[in-house]
TrEMBL record:
Domain GGDEF as annotated: residue spans: 320-447
Basic and acidic residues compositional bias, start-end: 450-462
Ranges for region Disordered: 438-462
NCBIfam families: GGDEF
Protein name: Sensor domain-containing diguanylate cyclase
Residue ranges that the Swiss-Prot or TrEMBL entry lists as coiled coil: none
Length: 583
């Protein structure tokens, strides 16, 4: 093979070949080194396609037919034998009186690899930012974890991506994504002892990632337990980044067998993603706490009025069996006045706990006011609902410290929810009025006396005060009376408060009965008017206002009424008494 005079002075590889026979005529020193051929090797008779491409016949992409003496033909090519990419410069030259091919290669490999790395890094950064953006929109931590791992594994070309959480004395694999054909490992990676991760924990403590580019290369260097744990999972390389919250390690995010040429660039991106992931979990937790606070009563743990209003509006659009129980704690003001608000709060908590014990599994429970509670039951028939109400009332009978008024109503269609809630509320207030009526007259039911009702002695004392010592109500001539009426609205029984104001006058009883009858027949819930009474032989005019508290026996009714003795009230204020006419 002939020598080329400029060989030593030319740093880039080149060769000269016959364009007809393809025989190599010359390969310079740089070319021989590139193809790892001894400098003194005899290449005479060797074809260019054999030497340069490892082929048995001319290359299909040969450019001989494109060459000329006047200008070079320039193109790029990656050689399959050297894996180097070159910018090739081809032209015809005169070699001993014959036109031959000269090809000079300018090595682009370093620039190409750097460019590819830059493009990969840029693309991977975009992937991480897109995943972070997806996390920002997530409201469910489970969905956020699953989608992050799936996107991470698919976009960055890993075989497996996963999350581990710190639990007790070890780590557990909580989530994983596997590429097609890759076996799941999650079941075998539970409750793993911290001691298996001592090297990793040291790196995490320094704010670094775990980076293994070749597992076999570190065999004998790392703890055998670490090597074996990874080896049985068919892991050749991995990158793992710590997940922290408030400066404390809570887990880690990892990828198995990512692309070898990208693994070093993936590590810092994974660290950044862990930050976004941790912030996402914290945000979701904070949002859920805010929602819980907006929908829950902090004292009792039950739902509050906000949630009650939303649930009512939702149920109103349906047509399902629905029942409601309204419940109000009796005597809350006296309890707060006597024992302070701490005692009142404890009583409300006791009430809530009793409701939860009886209805917690079948009803939604709400504290809708200071001492008012509501329980709603859906998809239960009327018999089942009444049974629940009886159980609830029995449960409160067994809690002497918690005196409550209740009202319940059921409907087969929750579309009628407003009426149902109104009726239940009204029933509760009727029960509450009965309670205070009994207190005001000392007419305490035997069952309550047997339970040692805490109000008995105080209420009896209050009645004695009214009769003997006088109160502001007595001074102004105002009373609160209970009348039990029969079907003809004749007063069968009145309490002591009525006698204080009217002198237990029979004529007054008939007048009150007439007012009540007229109002009841007109469909009114209450009545009002002025009646004349004969109090100890002295005529008096009394203003009466009353409401029907409940239905009585045999078609009658029970009415609660307040009275103002007009003359006494005016006299007590220094005014001239009003004298009734004889009409």
């Amino acid at each position: 093979m002939a020598e080329y005079n400029d060989d030593l002075s030319y740093p880039d590889p080149f060769y000269i070949s016959d364009i007809e026979t393809y025989e190599l005529l010359h390969v310079n020193e740089a070319g021989r080194r590139l193809f790892k051929v001894p400098l003194d090797a005899d290449l005479e008779g060797v074809k260019c396609y054999e030497f340069l491409q490892g082929r048995d016949e001319p290359c299909p992409f040969c450019t001989n037919h494109l060459l000329s003496v006047e200008k070079s033909y320039v193109w790029e090519f990656t050689n399959p034998l050297t894996n180097h990419r070159h910018l090739l410069n081809d032209r015809l030259i005169n070699w001993g009186g014959k036109l031959v091919r000269l090809e000079v290669g300018f090595d682009l490999t370093d620039q190409k690899e750097e460019g590819m790395r830059f493009r990969n890094l840029h693309r991977n950064e975009e992937v991480i930012l897109e995943i972070a953006n997806d996390l920002y929109r997530e409201t469910d931590p489970e969905r956020a974890s699953v989608r992050m791992l799936e996107r991470l594994g698919e976009e960055l070309g890993a075989e497996r991506s996963y999350l581990f959480s710190a639990r007790g004395e070890g780590f557990s694999n909580t989530h994983e994504w596997c590429a097609d054909g890759i076996s799941s490992q999650i079941e075998s990676l539970q409750d793993m002892d911290y001691r298996l991760f001592e090297r990793w924990l040291d790196l995490f403590g320094r704010g670094e990632c775990v980076l293994i580019e070749d597992l076999d290369a570190i065999k004998g260097v790392v703890d055998p337990r670490e090597y074996e744990t990874l080896h049985v999972q068919e892991i050749a390389s991995l990158v793992v980044a710590p997940i922290e919250r408030d400066g404390r390690l809570v887990g880690f995010l990892g990828m198995d067998n990512p692309p070898a040429d990208q693994i070093r660039d993936i590590a810092p991106l994974l660290r950044t993603l862990c930050y976004f992931y941790s912030m996402t979990l914290q945000r979701i937790e904070n949002e859920r706490q805010l929602v819980a606070m907006s929908y829950h009563d902090s004292l009792t743990g039950l739902y509050n009025r906000n949630r009650y209003n939303e649930d009512v509006r939702r149920l109103e659009k349906l047509a399902r069996p629905f029942g409601a129980v309204f419940l109000d704690v009796n005597g809350m003001k006296e309890i707060n006045d006597r024992g302070g608000h701490a005692e009142g709060d404890h009583l409300l908590q006791t009430c809530a706990q009793t409701m939860q014990r009886v209805l917690g599994e079948v009803a939604r429970l709400y504290r809708v006011g200071g001492d008012e509670f509501v329980a709603t039951v859906v998809d239960t028939d009327e018999a089942g609902f009444r049974s629940l109400v009886e159980r609830l009332q029995k449960a409160f009978d067994e809690v002497p410290s918690c005196e409550v008024a209740t009202g319940a109503q059921w409907t087969p269609r929750s579309s009628e929810i407003d009426r149902t809630l109104f009726d239940a509320d009204e029933a509760m207030y009727r029960d509450k009025r009965r309670f205070y009526q009994n207190r005001s007259t000392s007419d305490v039911a035997p069952s309550r006396r047997a339970r040692g009702d805490r109000f008995d002695e105080r209420e009896r004392a209050k009645a004695r005060d009214v009769a003997q010592e006088g109160t502001l109500m007595e001074l102004l001539g105002i009373g609160f009376a209970r009348h039990r009426l029969d079907e003809a609205f004749t007063t069968l029984e009145s309490n002591a408060c009525y006698s204080l104001v009217t002198g237990d006058d029979e004529e007054g009883r008939r007048a009150v009965g007439a007012l009540a009858k007229e109002a009841r027949e007109a469909g009114e819930r209450g009545f009002a008017g002025t009646v004349c009474v004969n109090r100890g032989g002295v005529p008096a005019r009394v203003r009466v206002s009353g409401v029907f508290a409940e239905d009585g026996a045999a078609g009658g009714a029970v009415a609660l009424a307040s009275y103002v003795d007009v003359e006494d009230a005016l006299a007590s204020m220094g005014k001239e008494a009003y004298k009734p006419s004889n009409s």
